[in-house]
Amino acid sequence: MPDLRVCFLGESFVAGIGDRKHLGWAGRLAVRATAAGQPLNYYNLGIRRETSTELRARWAAECTPRLPAGADCRVVISTGVNDSQYENGRPRVDPEVSADNLTAILRGTREKGWQTMVIAPPPNVDEDHNRRLLALDDSFADICDALDARYLRAHQPLRDNPIWMREVAARDGYHPDAPGYDEFAALLAPHWLLWLADPGSGLPTVR
């Protein structure tokens, strides 16, 4: 049996904040992989309120001991919501810096030989914020295309998903409870399972 190891990196949605089942979408994807006959070692490295700048500073130190030579090593990244959140009249991280941070991380994972997938930042109830997230979504998609990393464009499908948006609105405006994370994981699952089975399969983006 291959030693498949996956590190999930990112912010509160990776950590599953708001989910009373304490799985989030990342935990649900790990469960689906095992159910599909692809057991893995699952490492959730999500941190609430983290920006891509903070992620850039820690990803290598946290992933390296968990992804040893000889294993089938994968990384899943989701970042950007905190970057584009306004504080003191401006984004916490400028979009150009967010793009540079993701580029640096993806170049680093490629140098280490780790297959990497990036998940688009999900929507919330603030439409001004969502417009900034859509711009970041486009930028991240271009970066991933240039660096041959898989990118799942989950933002717009979740904006159109009444369960996700209802769950988010019923809580803090950002984080759903279990039904919302169920929808997020269901959206990603077919592409996730294909990527695990064949990381070089020409995986389509989620539209």
Write the layout of secondary structure elements.
Elements (H helix, E strand, L loop, with lengths): L3 E7 L1 H4 L8 H12 L5 E6 L5 H12 L8 E7 L7 E2 L2 E2 L3 H18 L2 E5 L7 H20 L3 E3 L2 H5 L2 H8 L8 H20 L10
Parallel strand pairs: 1-2, 1-3, 3-6, 6-7
Antiparallel strand pairs: 4-5
Helix pairs in contact: 2-8, 3-4, 4-5, 7-8
General description of the model:
With 207 residues, this protein is of the alpha/beta class. The protein has 8 helices and 7 strands. The protein has helices at 12-15, 24-35, 52-63, 95-112, 127-146, 155-159, 162-169, 178-197, and strands at 4-10, 41-46, 72-78, 86-87, 90-91, 115-119, 150-152. The strands form 2 sheets. It has a 5-stranded parallel β-sheet with strand order 2-1-3-6-7, with helices on both faces. Helix 2 packs across helix 8 (178-197) and helix 7 (162-169) packs across helix 8 (178-197).
Quaternary state reads single chain
Tally of helical runs: 8
**Widest sheet, order of strands:** 2-1-3-6-7
Described by the principal axes of the CA atoms, the overall outline is globular
Structural class: alpha/beta
Radius of gyration: 16 Å
- Beta-strand level of the residues, as a percent range? 15-25%
**Strand runs, count:** 7
Quick description:
With 207 residues, the protein is of the alpha/beta class.
